[in-house]
UniProtKB/TrEMBL annotation:
<keyword id="KW-0378">Hydrolase</keyword>
<dbReference type="InterPro" id="IPR001969">
    <property type="entry name" value="Aspartic_peptidase_AS"/>
</dbReference>
<dbReference type="InterPro" id="IPR051320">
    <property type="entry name" value="Viral_Replic_Matur_Polypro"/>
</dbReference>
<dbReference type="GO" id="GO:0006508">
    <property type="term" value="P:proteolysis"/>
</dbReference>
<dbReference type="InterPro" id="IPR018061">
    <property type="entry name" value="Retropepsins"/>
</dbReference>
<dbReference type="Pfam" id="PF00078">
    <property type="entry name" value="RVT_1"/>
</dbReference>
<comment type="similarity">
    <text>Belongs to the beta type-B retroviral polymerase family. HERV class-II K(HML-2) pol subfamily.</text>
</comment>
<dbReference type="InterPro" id="IPR000477">
    <property type="entry name" value="RT_dom"/>
</dbReference>
<dbReference type="InterPro" id="IPR001995">
    <property type="entry name" value="Peptidase_A2_cat"/>
</dbReference>
<feature type="domain" description="Reverse transcriptase">
    <location>
        <begin position="190"/>
        <end position="374"/>
    </location>
</feature>
<dbReference type="GO" id="GO:0004190">
    <property type="term" value="F:aspartic-type endopeptidase activity"/>
</dbReference>
<dbReference type="InterPro" id="IPR021109">
    <property type="entry name" value="Peptidase_aspartic_dom_sf"/>
</dbReference>
<feature type="domain" description="Peptidase A2">
    <location>
        <begin position="8"/>
        <end position="79"/>
    </location>
</feature>
<dbReference type="Pfam" id="PF00077">
    <property type="entry name" value="RVP"/>
</dbReference>
<dbReference type="InterPro" id="IPR043128">
    <property type="entry name" value="Rev_trsase/Diguanyl_cyclase"/>
</dbReference>
<protein>
    <submittedName>
        <fullName>Uncharacterized protein</fullName>
    </submittedName>
</protein>
<dbReference type="InterPro" id="IPR043502">
    <property type="entry name" value="DNA/RNA_pol_sf"/>
</dbReference>
């Protein structure tokens, strides 16, 4: 393809959001894009000024992202879309890239079910996700309904230290604005059965934490006193840097999944539920009640260890050898990697099926599916 009159060899990468060049094709602008690598490192890169691009009799103007560390210039989705490009795969032969001419007709065509993965849904921030996964695995997505339940695990028992006595701490005053914000979250959890009314000799305070970038509040329970009264389990949570060192140098496609309300998936034994009670005043009626959790709560010191071990047990036989994928788990975050797109795609579907079967819920909003970088 000619860029500004100069021929440049590009590699077609339909998984890349932006088309990239390894050398500046024009002066750089102040416009930037944040590139997030597999290790989580964020790097801001600048765009070049617009240049005329010519390919197959088609001429468009485009701004390329300047990425000097990229081994070869990439022709991404942005420019492929402008060019009206089509990629055709021939059995036993090479793939062909064709560009729609400026006077070509556009018509609607039907698509076989097995090719639905090519239809993508774009979220805020430019993240592309195949919408067919919503229909193929409806029960696994947290946005579709009830919270998860780890169905292969018995309710968790919490062991107190010898001589431990109930702790009764007063609830701190909470401004009405914050109580109104928290009430929404508590009502959602109560409707889902994660919170229940109770009467308990234990009581620890609830704190309002304002969410970054907005006026919403979320409830955070101060469980320090309960944590001090409970026997600490040996932590088996891995070091994330050690985990990432296990990635193969050939890993080039990634799926990252975040489990929603993960700790609540493990149920608390009814005898231990009173340990985590807190007092709440309804901002609308002024009525005070005690509530507690039916699942292991956030802020409980043993929650990451308990949940991590449960999820690891449910995924102990995954992935199967024929998938040619690697799965890394850090508490409630999963990273699936493979050296090519097709194996990453098949591995992602197999992982979603396994999570759905075991009763976990995945955040569709945060899911990154078959991406070059996550």
């Amino acid at each position: 393809m000619k860029v500004g009159g100069q021929p440049i060899i590009f590699m077609v990468d339909s998984g890349a959001e932006h088309s990239m060049v390894t050398k500046p094709v024009a002066p750089l602008t102040q416009r930037r894009a944040t590139i997030i690598g597999a290790t989580g490192t964020q790097t801001a890169r600048q765009f070049c000024r617009p240049r005329t691009c010519q390919l197959g009799g088609h001429e468009v103007t485009h701004e390329f992202l300047y990425l000097p560390e990229c081994p070869i210039p990439l022709l991404g989705r942005d420019l492929l879309t402008k060019l009206g490009a089509q990629i055709t795969f021939n059995q036993g032969g090479p793939a062909n890239l064709t560009v729609r001419g400026p006077n070509a007709l556009i018509m609607a065509v039907t698509m076989p079910t097995e090719d639905e993965w090519q239809l993508y849904h774009q979220e805020k921030g430019g993240l592309m996700k195949p919408i067919c996964l919503l229909e193929e695995f409806p029960d696994v997505w947290a946005e579709n309904g009830a919270p998860g339940l780890a169905c292969y695990h018995a309710p968790v028992m919490v062991e107190l230290k010898p001589g431990a006595l109930p702790v009764r701490q007063r609830q701190y005053p909470i401004p009405r604005e914050a109580r109104l914000g928290i009430q929404t979250h508590l009502q959602r959890l109560k409707d889902a059965g994660i919170l229940i009314d109770c009467q308990s000799p234990w009581n620890t305070p609830l704190l309002p934490v304002k969410k970054a970038g907005g006026g919403d509040y979320r409830p955070v329970q101060d469980l320090q006193a309960v944590n001090n009264a409970v026997i600490t389990l040996h932590s088996v949570v891995p070091n994330p840097y050690t985990l990432l060192s296990l990635l193969s140098p050939q890993a080039s496609w990634f799926t990252c999944l975040d489990l929603k309300d993960a700790f609540f998936c493990l149920r608390l034994a009814p005898v231990n539920q009173p340990l985590f009670a807190f007092e709440w005043e309804d901002p609308h009626t002024g009525r005070k009640t005690q509530m507690t959790w039916t699942g292991i709560p956030q802020g409980f010191k043993n929650s990451p260890t308990l949940f991590g071990e449960a999820l690891a047990a449910d995924l102990s036989t995954f992935p199967e050898e024929n998938l040619s994928c690697t799965l890394l788990q850090y508490v409630d975050n999963l990273l699936l990697t493979s050296h090519d797109w097709e194996r990453c795609w098949e591995g992602t579907k197999a992982l979603l099926a396994r999570l759905s079967e075991a009763g976990y819920k995945v955040s569709w909003k945060k899911a990154q599916v078959c991406q070059r970088e996550v």
